[in-house]
Give the backbone structure.
Amino acid sequence: MTQVPGIEKVLIANRGEIALRVARTLRRLQIASAAIVHVDDAESPAAAAVDEVCRIDAETPVAAYLDADQIIAAARRVHADALHPGYGFLAENADFAQAVESAGLKWIGPSPDAIRLMGDKIESRRFLGSAGHPLTPSASEEDDPTTFAARAEKIGFPLLIKASAGGGGKGMQIVREAGELAPAIDRARSEAERYFADGRIYAERYVEEPRHIEVQILADAHGKVLHLGERDCSIQRRFQKLIEETPAPALSDDLRTKIRDQAVAIARAADYRNAGTVEFLLAPDGEFYFLEMNTRLQVEHPVSEMVTGIDLVEEQIRVAAGENLTLSQEEIGFEGASIECRLCAEDPDEDFRPAVGELLLVRPPEGPGVRFDAGIATGQHVTTAFDPMLAKVIVHGASRAEAIERMRRALSETIILGCSTNAAYLERILGHPDFAAGKVETGFIPKHAEALASPPLDRTERATILATAALSNRDFIERVEAVPEPHASMGAWQN
């Protein structure tokens, strides 16, 4: 008997660290697990962690994980009761969520209607604007394509051109003067069509030096909406998050309460259920504006779990099963501070160019308050087929200062050989005095680019790195240890 009545088996429709993360909670709840697995992931930790593997295939690995019909067929084949989409891929696809429910499966996420409303940036802004929620001035191209540029220019510069179905910085263009507007619109529309098969775009006022603040929401199907505090996600490169933390530093109690309450009100207005995140831009003058709602579990959800002690995946499953949220808002405690760093296969000194290679050794950090969420293992190959994130290093401390120190130590103890990572770069961000003081905003990385660059290597360091690289190369070791002829033919002998 599982610990969640009505759910006996869940198909995990994802890969990597999030598939492994979901599988661990399912095991604790005594719920059987299955996962879709492409041949490229056959030896992954996620594939080994589930009770049953469903092989999927397509022209590319990504296409396989986006094949809705194949995924639903796999769920039926293994007799799953429910499907967890993780994040990315089909997690925010309302049509997929509807198809899952039409197939008689429980969708572990918000309703298809909520995904359509809040997952569409244009529609969500219209909906919330009519209800009086705080928004930056904006204009949608689809309202009248012939006047879009003029309406956007009327908002005033700088502007941000965005894809309605966008995310991860795709389909976004900053425009600072009128001459840049037309080409930026064309680029944004082209990227929106390429990445999301949806060319709808809109323009909004670009807030200079904002902070990116988001609030974790939990809601059940019985009208209860809770928040699990806010997270600061301002440390970004190319609109993609690198470091997230909770609680957000340098916020007054009054402003913190207003942001949290606004997020709850937005979720309630959307008749939202399950886990979600309401995101805001916080301007330097203290005004904040609705940015978007992510209708799924977030990559950075572990920091909220660390300070509240709540397993968000478990709550997702229970809500999907129709259960009530048992906690009240007053019963949710927030203990200490937590930070998450996204460990990526990339070279920050080469404009964050993605890195590839065979992982010769993966050794996670250990110690009190340290968590390592990863879907990688020694021997795996890192390619450019998927997002470059290899793992998430998460720490918890009694204070923000302790969490920062614990994270710096955890990053220095993380060993990944065979592929370049951004670990040292993340350490330098954490060690910057402005970060320590909580002086963060979305332009932190370009503003401090010189200070964050790799320091030059001295002769000893260079020799150590070259020796390590050589000793990690199997061909080199085999040549060094090979016995030359004619001795190799003579076999073992003694003088």
About this structure: The chain is about 35% helix and 25% strand. The chain has a mean pLDDT of 93. Residues 137-205 form a domain with the Dna Ligase; domain 1 fold (CATH 3.30.1490.20).
